[in-house]
Amino acid sequence: MTHSVTGVKPMVRSTALPLALLCAWGAALPLSAQRDVQDVVHRLDELVVSATRTERRVGDLPVNVTLVSPRDLGVSAAGSVGDLLKVLPGFSLLRGFSTMVGHPSTQSVSMRGLGGNAASRTLVLIDGFPLNDSFAGWVHWSRVPLASVERIEVVRGGGAGIWGNRAFGGVINIITSRPTRNEGRFALQGGGLGTVKGAGGIDYRGAELGLSLDGEYFQTDGYVPVRSDLQGPVDRPSGSDHYTIRGQGEYAFGGRVALVVDGSYFREDRKTGTALRDAALSVATLGARASFTTGDGNAWSLRLFGTDTDYSTRFSSVSEDRASERPATDQFDVPSSDLGAALQWARATVGGHELTAGVDVTRIVGETNERYVWSGSEFRNFRNAGGTQVLAGAYAQDLFPVGEALQLLLGGRLNLTRNTAGFLVESSLATGDASVDDAYDDNSRWSFDVSGGFSYRAQDRATVRGSVYTGFRAPTVHELYKPFRATGNVVVAPNHELVPERMVGGELGVDVVLSETVTGRFTGFYSRVREAVIDATIAVVESPRTVEPCGFVPAGGTCLQHQNVGLIRSVGLESEIHVVPAPNWSLSLSHVFNPTEILEAEGRPEIVGLRVPRTPRQQLSFQASYVDPNSWSVALTSRWSGITFDDDLSENELDRHLVLDGRVSRRWSELVTTFVSVENLLDNEYAVGRTNSGLVRVGLPRLVQMGVRVTS
Description:
6-stranded mixed sheet, mainly beta, 5% helix, 5 helices, 22-stranded antiparallel beta barrel
C-alpha cells in the first residue's frame, strides 16, 4: 500500500526514531533504490476526496489516509476489493469468509473495532456514490469488477464525518478507471474449486466525450464452509456465480462544465452451504454528477443517484448431527430502493481558506416478504415487514494554513434521520388471519457533529497530525424491522425501538521518513460509542421452543436481537512501514493493536468488561513484491489475526490464524500478460465463525488460479 507520508524530503541522513535496523538497511542501498523512494514520496502528495468531499493533498489532512495504488492492485491475489483490503491494519469483514462465497450478510465492514453486526459502520463509495446496501448496510463487493478499479482511498476513523451516516468507522472510496484513450481489454482466469472469471471492457476517448463499458462474469463451485470434522450429510459446497455490467459516459462543456453519467446492473446467485440454503440478488443503479466552475472561482457540483435492489434468501434448520435439515424461512421477496441527491459548493478565498458547504438527502424504502414455520410439508405462516427512512444533512468545512507549516481543518454537519411507515404483519397462510398487525410510530432525530484537526510539518522529515470528532449512525431499515436467520440455527430479531449510535473520538499520528528507503506512519486513536448496536444473546435453547422476540427457535439454536448497549470503547495503535530494499522491490508491514471493551450495558451486567464481538485485538500483515513493468512481477502477502470472539458473551472463541497469498505474472508484450495466483498458500483450515450449537465455519482453502490479460 502507498503510505501517505507527505511534506517531507526523502534524503534524510539520520533519525532518532525506532526501527534503527530498517533505517541502517535502507541507508546502505543503491541510489536507484533511493530514487524509487523519491517516486513513492512524490506520489504521497496525491489529491484525495475521501476525507473532505473535495480534492485535498494528503499532507494537509489531519486523519489517517491510506492509498491503494495501481501497483498494489496489480500484485494482489485477491479476487475482490473486499478481500484485497484485508491487508489494511484494522480492516475486517463481519466474517472472514472470502467474499466470493460468503452470504451477503457476512460482508459488512469493520474498522478500528467498530463492528459487531451485519450493518457496516464504514461508508463505502464507488466514485463518490454509496456502495453500502441502503436497506441492510451490507456491502456487495462483487458489484465492483476488480479490473476496472484504478485506486482506492481509505480513511480510518471518524475524521471524515462530513459524509454523515455510517462514516464514523471510516470511509472507503473506490475510484474506477476513466477513459483516457481508445482501448479494448479482456481477461480470462480459472482454477481450483471450479472457479472461472471472465472480464472485459472497451473505452472511447474523444476531445470532449469519453465512454467506457465494463463487464464481468464469475462462477465457482466453492467449498464446504464447515470444519472438516463437523461436516455431515447435509453439507454442500458454498458456491456462487454473478455477472455485472457497468457503463459510464462523460462530457466536458467548454472547460468549466463537466457531466458524468454511469449505470450498472448486477445479478448474483449463491449456494450457502446446504441443499436448502441459497441467496439471490440483483442491483440496478443509475447516477449522474455535474460540476461547474464560475469565473470568480466558485465550484459547484451536483450528484443524483438511484438504486433498485431485489433480494431473496432461504434458510434451514439443521439437526445437531448434521444428518438432516428442514426449511426454516423463505424470504422470497425482499425489495428495496433508494433515491439520493447532493449539492456542494467550494471556493478558495483570500488568506488560503478552502471553504466547502453542501446539503444531501437520501430516501430509502424496503420490506421483506417471508414464509416461515415449516409444518412438515409446507410453511404455515407469512410475514411482511418494512419501513421508510430519510437521511438528510447540511455541512460546512474550512481548511486553512496558519503560517508555513501548520494546516487546520474545522467542520460541522447537521443530521436528520426520519423513520416512517414502519410495520409488521404476521398471518396464517391457510386462513389469511393476522396474528400480529403492528404499525410503528414515526420518529425524527436531529444531531450535530463537529470535527477539527491539524497537520503540522514539524521538520523536513516528519509531519504530525491530529483530529477530534463526533459522529452518528442511524440503525438501518433492516435492523429496525426485518428478522433473519443465520447459520447454526441462529434467529435474529429486529428492534423498532433502536436509537442512533453516537461517537466521540480522536487520533494523533506522525508520518516520517526513517531513512532514504524507509517510510513510516503511526497513528494512535481513541473513540467511545454510545448506544452501539450489537446482536445481543436473548436465549440459547436445548430443545425447540418459542422465544420472544425471535419466535420459534430450533434445538441447539440461539435467539439474538439487535440492541443498543450503553457504551463501548475502541482504543489502539496503527503502525505502517514501507521499505524499498532494491530497485523494483517493495516491502510493507502493518500492525494494529485494538483492545475494544464494552464499558456500560444497562440491564446486561454480564457483558460489561467484555470485548466487542468479532473484532480481533491484533492484526498483522506483510507484503513483499517485485514489479518490473516490462517483464516479471512477484508478490507474497501474509495476514495474521489474533483471537476473536464471535458473540457478545465472549464465549465462542476464534483462534489466531495466518493466511499466505501469492501471485506471479509475466508481461510478454504490450498486449499480453499471464499470471498465476494462490490464495491460502499453506491450505490452513481456520475458523471464521462459531455458534452456541458448536458449529465452526472456516475460511477459504487453497485456491490456485491461472489467467491471461489482453489489452489493445
